[in-house]
Structure formats: structure tokens, C-alpha cells
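Internal QA ticket QA-208
Title: Verify multi-chain structure generation after dependency bump
Assignee: T.L.

Test input:
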Amino acid sequence: MVGGDMSDTISALVDDELGQNQIVQTVDTLLSDTAQGMEQRLYYSAYCLIGDALRGDALGQPLAGRVALLLADEPTLLCSKTSRKQWPVLALAASVACIALILGMVLKQEIQSRPNLAAETLTAGELASALSASAVQTPDISNDMVDYVFAHQSYSQAGYAASTANQIRTISMATGGRE
Amino acid sequence: MKRVVFGVLLLAAASWSNAAEPLQLLKNITAAAEKINYSGVFVYQRGNSTETSRIVHVWENGQESERLQVLDGSPREVVLENQELKCILPESHLVVVEGKSKKPGFPQLSVNEIDSLNGFYVLKRGQPSRVADFDAQMYVLEPRDKLRFGRQFWIEPASSLLLKSTLLDEKGDVRETFAFTELKIGNAVDRNFLKQGVKVDATWRVHMAQARPASGDDVPWKTSYVIPGFSQVSIMKRTMRPNSPELLHVLYSDGVASVSVFTRTINKSSRPEKGGFGMGGMNIYRRVLGDWQLVLMGDVPASVLKQFGDGIEVKP
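Actual output:
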């Protein structure tokens, strides 16, 4: 279950209101293969989406733009309902912070293994590789659930009748999310 | 029930006996979807999410071939060929496969269950309408209690093909909608569209969702509460992934809605999960029972699903 503390932590993180130790702790949790990590990523993803929506196509930084394009091609995390209480303060700052955070998360291992690598010199391919490597570390919960929904729908009579259409929930869930 | 061949396609709505009306409606819809050639574009809506898909269905030599391609976002596909159903998910580089011939099949309802079905739903004939440029007859399958969802069906009268359906929650709000926007019925379908479009290579993961029949002895739990009108209709064991332990799949149904209870052993590599969430017309509830992870899902209200899940106890 998503709680208020979690949203506050993520909000504080993207608003750059956390201390160094808290940043490290929160990012570690975000990267962790735990239920809390997944829930925090859901919040984080929601904040990014909000930022994207408010920002439109206003990305001015070439690197940020490239990252955003790559992110658009990445699997969508399951999203829960978002808290609206802090929408006004997110805006552009939140979206930029999200990009910075994503970049930090993705490049964490990459930079550790390649000390001389500067983010500004990354090519789209390198970023894609880093993103892919990061994706491997994410929990496989969504695919577990896809399996379950697939199995359930094989025997469900949801009213769609056709065999393939009966799996519309499965394939919708594969890129969609919770409500 | 979905896989049962009912034989008669064009039973007119007027000929249904009162006692079997809801069941006959479902039978007609199922039979039409199976044995009629059609192609079209449909919209699937749940919550604020809408996706458009193209579907082609061909019935030939006693076999179905079918392909669904999502036209929005990631080009996901579902392909039915040689009785094998495949979900192809490009974003996840994942293919989930189930051989239809190997699954136990949704059992046909007994006479008592038909009576039970009528005890929990009432079928009402709505107004004639129009969907995807076809005349449509609307039906409402209304639950008699708050323990299950209602459904609305729009059917093409000549073929009994389902043109549109909605799932209504316990408050009467639409949770899910499926509706054709374009449709061709008959042999004039483009069979080229049946071919799988997404190329899958060795880097993709393949989950073989094979099921084999199991018995009550395999079920490590018992239920202290079963949703009224629901009965256990199937027990299966499934292996979803290579080298993964089998999980138990117990299916309950009231003849219209289905609830699945999945049971798997919690081990070091699998983290216990708790809580519930909704996804369109389906609710999902997870809880831990001893050393087992239970995952329940079905087209029933969240509170009802939770009550059902919480009533599951370890067998003494």
C-alpha cells in the first residue's frame, strides 16, 4: 500500500529537499528489488508523468531530450493513483529533477564501471545500454502478474468472446497499470 | 464454457426459454465469435485508458485462427493458431503461450448451475441500437445482489456476434468497455493479417503457461467463505516459466464471472506480496497463507474478492 510518508519522501527528493544521507538512502530504496522500492518507483514514475504533461515539449537540453526519448521507449511501470496534494509544486522543477534522478539511477553502475565516462558524452546507444542494464535489476512483478492474468483470462468469460480479445486485459496490463 | 462447441449459431433471442436466457445469451455470443469469419477494429476502455486493436477471425476446417494487434503504443499481439494462443509483448520481450488443446477446458454448467445462474442474474432486453454501422440488440445482465458485476451486451441480431459490451461495477458505473468501431462479417476478411507481425528471436523470454488437471488433494487450503453462487469449477497445476515450481490454479465461477485463486510456495527468490488493486473490470488481491502466496483475481467487487481471500485457511 502506498502511504503518505512515501509520497513525501519522493516529493522531497525531486524537490531537492533531502540531506545527502537521505538521498543515498532513498535512491538505494528506489533501486532495490523490494516492494517498497517498487512502490517508490511508482510514485516517482507518476511524478515524471506529471512533469512531462505540464512541460509539454519544452525540453531544451539536448541530453535531457535524448534521455526522455529513450525513456519513452522503455517499459512503463505499473502506476497507482497519484496523490494530487503536491501537484502545484512539481511543475518544471520536478520534471527536470526526475530526469536527473533517472540519469543518476541508470548511470550509477555504468559510471562505477567506467570512471572516465562523463554523462554529457554519452551517445544514445550508450544510454540505451545503461537503461537496459538498469531494467534488468527491476523486480519482475509485472511479468508475474501478466502470467497470472493470462492464465485467468484463458478461462474467464469477460464478455469479449473471441479467444484473443479475451486476452485484451493481459496485453493492456503489460504496458498499463493499476488504478 | 467458452471453449465448448454449442453447435447452434443462430438461436433467436425470442426463442430462449426464461430459465436459460442468460446462459443461452452467453452461448450464442461464444458460438458466434468462434464460428463466424469477421475482421474489424475495436476499442477497449478501462478507466481513463483506451486502446484500439484490430482483430481478424477465421473459422476454417473446424479450427479457429485469430490475430489481434494493438494499434496504439507498443504493437502487442495475440495470435491464435493451431490451437495455440500466444501473447506477444514487445516491450517486455516476452511471449506467453498456452496450448489450447492441453487445457482442461471451462466446464459446461450443469442444470443446477443454470438455475443458480438465474438466481443471481436477471437478463433484460434493452432497446435496439446501432454499433459500428450494424443494427444491434442490447441486453442487460443485471446482478440480483451487490456481490457481482453487471454486464451490457450489444449483439448483431443475424449472427449473434458481440458488437459491444460493458462491465458495470456494484455501483452501476462502467468499469470496462469493449466496442467494435469497424466490422466486416463474412468471408471477405484479409487473411494476410493472420500472420504474426512481431518478429521474436532467441533473446525473448517465453513463458509456457501450460496447465494440467489437478485434484482437491493438491489444494493445501480450504475456504470458510465462498461467494454465493460461485462454485469450484476447475483445479489445475501450471508451470509458467522454465525451471519454476508449479503453481496451483483453482477456478471458481457463477456461470458469468470467474475468480482465480493462484497458490505458489514462497521461497527465498520470491518475496511475499500483500494487498489489492484494480485493473478495469478485474480486481486482484494478494495475501500470504503460511508458506504460500495467494493471488486472487476476478470480475467481482474488491471487497467481495478480499472477503473470499481472507476466508481461505490452511487445511488442518
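Spot checks passed. The first helix of chain B runs from residue 21 to 35.
Status: verified.
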